[in-house]
Write a structure and sequence with these properties.
- This is HAD family hydrolase.
- Helix content is 48%, strand content 13%.
- It contains twelve helices and eight strands.
- The strands form two sheets. It has a six-stranded parallel beta sheet with strand order 4-3-2-5-6-7, sandwiched between helices.
- α11 (195-201) links the parallel β6 and β7 (204-206).
- α2 packs across α5 (67-84).
- It is elongated.
Length: 224
């Protein structure tokens, strides 16, 4: 048995309720232009890159803008959302307080943009809880590779097996688990189709993040 000595948190879908802006960005952008979008646009755009999405919007809605202009304007909407609106998910402050009260250091590991993630975390008062913030772009590898988790654990002075990872995305949870981290899964609507798989991969899976406190308060800060 090994006592957990650190915790690593994903941002989008785990700490922040920010995934809807990415799912609805096409609709939000067209609305800003006074254009009504097709039904199901969010599902279609969500799977595309920014470049692909911009191309689709330009062609399908006959926009008299270049793809680079569309991308710039879309990112401005996203930028404003993180800086002004993106809320913490329910129970986040409670779980962060739990770790701080137990003297367990915490890190952020995000595949998102550092500036936007920090803007939202600082605005909501969550940034002060974390010893370090790492991003995939700075690390040079996505969450399909374990490097960001390994570097976050190293920054906390912890080994993988004694560092809890909080994730909402199935593929990221799998990466962390395969690298030796105990993973706590957090439900997010954007990943609802993977709930069963997450339950199998994680030492604890919760609909809202603070639900894992009961698990942590019993024997959850240990793993075999």
């Amino acid at each position: 048995m090994m006592k957990s000595k650190g915790a690593i948190f994903d941002v989008d879908g785990t700490l922040l309720d920010s995934m809807p802006v990415w799912h609805n960005i096409g609709e939000l952008y067209l609305e800003s232009l006074g254009i009504t979008c097709e039904k199901g646009l969010g599902d279609k755009i969500y799977a595309m890159s920014l470049e692909q999405g911009a191309s689709y919007l330009r062609k399908e809605y006959h926009l008299e803008k270049s793809e680079s202009e569309i991308i710039h304007e879309v990112l401005k909407i996203v930028d404003d959302f993180y800086r002004l609106e993106a809320p913490l998910k329910p129970g986040v402050r409670k779980i962060l307080d739990w770790f701080r009260n137990h003297g367990i250091p915490m890190a952020v590991a995000t595949s998102g943009n550092r500036e936007l993630a920090l803007a939202a975390l600082e605005r909501t008062g969550a940034a002060e809880y974390f010893q370090t913030v790492l991003t995939c772009s700075e690390i040079g590898a996505g969450k399909d590779e374990p490097e960001i988790y390994l570097q976050a654990a190293q920054a906390l002075g912890c080994k993988p097996e004694e560092t809890l990872v909080f994730e909402d995305a199935f593929y990221a949870a799998c990466t962390a688990r395969e690298a030796g981290f105990p993973v706590i899964g957090v439900y997010d609507e954007s990943n609802r189709r993977f709930v069963h798989q997450m339950q199998e991969q994680c030492i604890c899976y919760c609909d809202q993040i603070e639900e894992c406190i009961e698990f942590l308060n019993t024997d959850g800060i240990y793993r075999e």
